[in-house]
């Protein structure tokens, strides 16, 4: 499991255990537990935006839909990955292949968005 997978799971656990947290706050708290405070890793936007996009759509257990991110692309990637996994659940074991399906022939480097989606699916934290 990648560090971003761990952050996603920890953030949902925080959200479920304390309804005072908002998704961005829970992500930031989890990120600082996994990475050094204010490090590049804790500030990386793509996996965070993928997580917030799933939250925004009301797809993460324990999180009401709302306005949580401005990143349209990373949200779209995450939601599309979830749709693809519903059709082809075996892709949960291959983030690179899942990413290829999400990108549908466009070449772009993976930036940990799939780690977030896969972690939430594997931990039954997504609808």
DSSP E strands, number: 0
**What does the main sheet amount to?**
none
Structural class: mainly alpha
Categorize the overall geometry. globular
Chain oligomer state: single chain
Radius of gyration: 13 Å
Instruction: Provide the residue-averaged pLDDT.
Output: 93
Number of helices: 7
Helix content: 55-70%
Low-pLDDT ranges: none
The span between the termini is: 21 Å
Give, in order, the helices and strands.
HHHHHHH
Q: How much strand?
A: under 5%
General description of the model:
By secondary structure, the protein is an all-alpha fold. Helix content is 61%, strand content 0%. The model has no long low-confidence stretch (mean pLDDT 93).
Give a summary of the structure in a few sentences.
The protein is mainly α and 127 residues long. Helix content is 61%, strand content 0%. The protein contains seven helices and no strands.
């Amino acid at each position: 499991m990648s560090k971003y997978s761990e952050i996603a799971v920890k953030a949902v656990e925080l959200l479920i255990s304390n309804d005072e947290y908002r998704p961005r706050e829970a992500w930031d708290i989890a990120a600082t537990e996994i990475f050094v405070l204010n490090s590049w890793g804790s500030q990386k936007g793509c996996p965070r935006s993928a997580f917030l996009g799933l939250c925004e759509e009301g797809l993460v257990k324990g999180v009401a839909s709302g306005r949580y991110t401005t990143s349209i692309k990373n949200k779209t990637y995450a939601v599309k990955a979830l749709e693809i996994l519903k059709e082809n659940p075996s892709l949960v074991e291959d983030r690179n292949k899942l990413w290829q399906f999400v990108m549908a022939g466009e070449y772009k480097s993976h930036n940990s968005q799939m780690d977030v989606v896969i972690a939430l699916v594997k931990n039954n934290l997504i609808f």
